[in-house]
Amino acid sequence: MKNRITSCRNPKIVNLVSLIEKKKERREQGLFAVEGERELRTCISCGFILESIFVCPDIADASLLAGLDSLSIRKLKNICLSDKNVFAVTPSVYSRIAYREGTEGVLAVFRSRNLSLSDLKPKGTPLIPVLENVEKPGNIGAVLRTADGAGADCVLLCDCPTDLYNPNVIRSSLGAVFSVPVVCCTSMEAVKWLKDNDIAIYSAQLQNSRAYYGADMKRACALVMGSEDKGLTQIWRESSDERLLIPMLGKMDSLNVSISASILCYEAVRQRI
Known about the structure:
Elements: E1 3-5, H1 11-21, H2 23-29, E2 31-35, H3 37-45, E3 50-55, H4 62-69, E4 86-89, H5 91-97, E5 106-111, E6 127-132, H6 137-149, E7 155-158, H7 167-173, H8 176-179, E8 182-185, H9 187-196, E9 200-204, E10 210-211, E11 221-226, H10 234-239, E12 242-245, H11 257-272
Parallel strand pairs: 1-4, 3-4, 6-7, 6-11, 7-8, 9-11, 9-12, 10-12
Antiparallel strand pairs: 2-5, 3-5
C-alpha cells in the first residue's frame, strides 16, 4: 500500500470520522463506514460497492494485508478500488476512526443502498418482521440478525429515527444489515403495501390479543413490533389481522423488542419446518 496517512487532520480521516459520527453526512454523501474483516467481506458479498479501505498494518492480520496487496478482493465487479484509495494508517490514526472494541485493523467505506417498497417482490409465503419507531441501534441490529437467521424475506423499519447505516446498527447486526433487504418507510406506506400484497399483519401487543403460538404463521405474514416505551400506533392496531401476545409469567409486562422478534420469528420457522 503506497498511500500512508499519519495525521488525524488528514481530510480523508476528517471526512471518515464525519461519516461514522453523523447521520446527516452519511445521507448527503450516500456513503457509510464498515469496520472489521467479517463485516467488510459480508458487505462485499451482498453486492455493496466498495469505495475505499483504511488498514492499520500494525494491527491487521497478515493474510488480509496480502489479499489487499495482491488485489485479490478487487476482482469482484462491485469493487472500485485502485492504489489511490487503499490507505495505510498509523495506530494513532486508526484509534481515531475505530468505533468498536477488538478491532482487526481494517475499516472500509461503501456506497449506501436505499431500497423502497417498490423494490420488494414478495413470492410464496414471505416472513417479514416490521419495527415501528424503534430507536436503539442495538435493538435494530439484533432484530436484523434474527431476521437473517430465521430466513426472513425482508425487514421494514417504519418511522425509524435511526438511520440504517448507523455504525452501531452494523456492529450489533454482525453484518446482517447487508444480507437482509431492509426498507425504511412510514407505517401508513407499510400497511398499504402489506395489504396490497395479501400479507397478513400480526401485531405484537397486550390489548385484545391471544398467545402468539395460536396464530397461523405458515401463511405470508408480517410480524409487527413497536418500541418498548410507546408500543404500536393506532394504524397498526386497526390494520392487524391478528393481535399476538407473548405470555409474561413474572412481574414484567413485556420483553425487549429484539427478544420478542426472536420468539415470533422462530415460531414462524417452527411452524414452517
